Amino acid sequence: MGRYLFVSLPLTGHVHPMAAVSAALVARGHEVLWAGSESFLRPVLGPDAAIAPIPLRAHRGQADRGMAAARSRWEGYVVPHAKATLPGIERAVAAFRPDVLAVDQHAVAGAIAAHRAGLPWASLAPTTMELTRPYRALPKVEAWIQRQMAAAWTAAGMAGAPPHDLRFSPHLLIAFTGSALNGPLDWPDNAVLVGPALARRAPDTAFPWDWLDPGRRHVLVTVGTLSMDLAQDFHARVVEALRPLGRDVQAIVVAPDGTVPDAPQGDVLVRSRAPVLDLMPRLDAVVSHGGLNTVCEALAHGVPLVVAPIKGDQPINAARVAATGAGRRVRFAGVRPEQLRADLLAVLDDPAYRAAARRVRDSFAAAGGAAAAARHLEGMLEAGSTDGERIPA
C-alpha cells in the first residue's frame, strides 16, 4: 500500500474533487495525509482525515476581472500561498515520508517540495484555466507567469530554474473534466481526464428540506467562494428575475447572511451554505459563475445551467456549456433581470438543454471519476490501469 500527501489551495472548489480522490485511496487501503489549514480542511474532509496543520493566512482579495485577474491571482494569492505553506509541506514530507504527492495545480509549493525531496508527484487540475492555457496567445503574459513560478522556485532556495512548468507534473496530470465538455484541446501527453470526482459530504442537518415544494421547479444560485464580494448586485438582479416566477419556481441562493434582503419568503431561500450534491437530484437548473467544480457537479447530475462568468477559467467553462447545448451564457455584470428570467425559463422549459446535460453526464460517468483518479495515482507506485479518458499524444 502507498502513502500519499495531498496539497491544495484552501478553496472549496479545489478541495472537494481532491477530497473525493483521497477518500477513494483510503478505501483502497492506502494512507493519506493532507498538508493545509486544519480550520479550512476539517469541515470539508471530515473528522477522520489526517491533516498536517499549516496556519491559514490572509491573502490579497481577487475582485479584479480581465487581465488584472491574472496579476491578482499570482501576485496576491498563488505566490504568497506558496511562500507561506512550503515550510509546513516540507515538514509533512519529512514526517510522513510519502511515496507520492498529489498537488493542486495552483499549489506550486507542493511541486517544489516534491522536487526537493526527489519524490514523484501528480498535478490535479480542479479548474480549466491552466489546462486551456489562454495566455499562450499572449506571450508576454505567459512569460510573466513563468517568471512568477521561477521567483517562487528561487525564493524556496532551489538552484537554477524550474526544470519544467510547475503547474504540470512530468509524471501525471489528472483533470476533473471530460472532452464532452471541453472539446478537443492540446493536452499534455501524460494527461488523463476522469470527469468530476464526487464523494459523499457531511449532511447539512440545518438545511430546511421541508421548505422545498414538490409541486414547483427548483433552481440553485451560486457564484462560488471567491466571488462573494462581487455578487451582491448580481443576487439582487437574480431575485428580481425570479420574483414573477414564484408560483412555479423556488430558488436556493447561496450568499452571506444579510446580503439578499428583499428575497420573497417561500419563493427564494438564502443560505450561507447549501448541501449542493444532496440538492442536485432535486434541481431543474443551476445559475452559476461557471467555476469548473459547480459546472461539473451540475452536469454530472444532468442538470442544465445558466452561467454568468466573472474571471479566470469561468468564461471558458461558460462558453463550453453553451457549445454543448447544456445551458446558456449571460453577462455577470450587465444582464438585466428580464433577460436573466428569459434565459432561465428557456433552460427550464426546453427539454433540449436537459438532454444535452444528460449526454455530458453519461460521458462523465464513463470516465470514472474519483475511482479512476485513484487508480492512476496507484499507477505511480507500480504499473497501473488505463481507466479514465487518457488523452493520446
From TrEMBL:
Residues covered by the Erythromycin biosynthesis protein CIII-like C-terminal domain: 267-376
Molecular function GO terms recorded: hexosyltransferase activity; UDP-glycosyltransferase activity
Biological processes, Gene Ontology terms: antibiotic biosynthetic process
Pfam families: EryCIII-like_C
Keywords, in A-Z order: Transferase
InterPro entries given in the database record: EryCIII-like_C, Glycosyltransferase_28, UDP_glucos_trans
Protein's recorded name: Glycosyltransferase, MGT family
Organism: Actinacidiphila cocklensis
Lineage: Bacteria, Bacillati, Actinomycetota, Actinomycetes, Kitasatosporales
